[in-house]
Amino acid sequence: MDTYALVVEKLREAVETALKKAIEKGELPEAALPEFIIEVPADNKNGDFATNAAMAGARSFRMPPFKVAQAITANIDLDGTLCDRFETAGPGFINFFLGDRFYTSVIREIIGDPEGYGCSDYGKGEKVNVEFVSANPTGPMHMGNARGGALGDCLAAVLSKAGYDAYREFYVNDAGNQIEKFACSLEARYLQIFKGDEIVFPEDGYQGADIIDLAREYADLNGDSLVEKDSEERKRALVDYALPKNIKKMQEDMATYKITYDKWFFESELHNSGAVKAVVDLLTEKGLTYEQDGAIWYKNKEVVTEKLLREGKSQQYIDNLELKDDVLIRQNGNPTYFAADIAYHKNKFDRGFVTLIDVWGADHHGHVMRMKGAMDAIGCDGDKLNVVLMQLVNLVKDGKPVKMSKRTGKAIQLRDLLEEVPVDSARFLFNTREANTQMDFDLDLAVAQDNQNPVYYVQYAHARICSIFKALAADGIAPRECTDEELSLLTAPEEKELIGHLALYSTEIISAAKDCDPTKVTRYVTRLATLFHKFYNACRVKGDDEGLMLARLALCGCVRSVIKNVLTMFNITCPETM
């Protein structure tokens, strides 16, 4: 257990023991112990930790909070809590102040295992499937994929650090309507090469220049060999040529973006294996489908309504959702995307994943409840499917929106971004805003090499610490293990604040994993860099007092380790010079 978590646990035990003693002495009436919290106050003037136990106990004991607080403080023993004093404040808050042993313990914990610091077994090895990006393979990846890639990859990294067995997956939609539309678009562009404008392009076809390029490439290699072929044969040949090329580009873009997937899962596998038909049959066996107008429908409204009623939602709330049933098999006998998606999520559970996390665009909001309900309907736990909904990204340059690539004159794609912006900047900046907030991605900021750029700011803190060690080494000064007495010399406010923040690292990792929000760790390390720069400006490392100098060197080494830990976890460069 990390030092921070240890303090929280020991303070909770101390408060519970104090309450029991007060009851035994008759200072508090017999009653069930109240539920209370131990937290870090927003203002450290109110202590390093605080509890609301007195306010929480006021109802249980039918006494004013300040009386309950008096009973707690009269019986509390801080031995083993790493706190050395307390005080009451306001209506009954009890504030605790850390002693020197806490700060020494944090530094020793980090020095003892710098690479492992922050890791925990919170997840107990639970298998988690993190599916993200999953871009349509019929065209180039866009800016939303850039944000989703950074969020998903860093979320998987955070989960691993928190003790989960995290698995990265990309779902390739290589079947269904979009592939048919892709085929028709390629066919039209191919035939136009040889027959000109007499070939009408489909109204709902893909208009991108990439379709024209792919058709031209095929024609350059194979000439007019497909012109006289049957349409289905022609489309199949064009898709067999073009789709692997698109998928290869997607894989190359992800590799450039420093993302490595454990599996690229192809939707076609579900159709070829019969998994899609099997899941429709399963729903039919459960009485959750019906036929109408030649199609097979899923009773989504019935399933979701029952689920929401079990959760305590009102009928009015449910009515306002305007729930509708969904088609599983179209009139032409082809499965819908929704049917394949149910089969895909069932497949993930069948592969042994306990929890599924999907990173989707905000336009999929209405799909979340349907998919959770469908998982319940087929016997899986819909509550084990967590969906991170991601808002849009706006590109900004010179304070103005940017929509077109300078290189191509067309909509900006992921590849365009990675050619203009360092990968480190993109990965870090996309993780500075929660997924559910709309984001302006500032191109000027992303390429700036100054402290306004968050990733540069954090990297510079690491490089600055490395330079401190190098400068002292040049003067013949080498770090060594400090005694507790030497570490206890770190009493300046800037030193204590910095150590206190270091102590929070594991807790922030766990919080980020629980909330599926890796941006918490990005904000944590940015704050760590700020506190280090504040310490550096206030506390001279090299000095005449050898003990203090070595203690400050140890603190610098701890900060360097945690910054490196975060940047390495997020697959971001950790430079020693800048």
Key words describing this protein structure:
alpha/beta; 53% helix; single chain; 15 strands; 578 residues; 5-stranded parallel sheet
> What is the terminal-to-terminal distance?
35 Å
Strand content: 5-15%
User: Whole-number radius of gyration?
Assistant: 30 Å
The poorly predicted ranges are none
Helix content: 40-55%
Number of helices: 23
Broad shape: flat
Secondary structure tally: strands: 15
The major pleated sheet works out as: 5 strands, parallel
- Structural class call reads alpha/beta
Task: Report the average pLDDT across residues.
Answer: 94
Quaternary assembly? single chain
**Order of adjacent strands in the largest pleated sheet:** 7-6-5-11-12
Explained architecture:
There is one protein chain. With 578 residues, this protein is α/β, with parallel strands linked by helices. The protein is 53% helix and 12% strand. The mean pLDDT is 94.
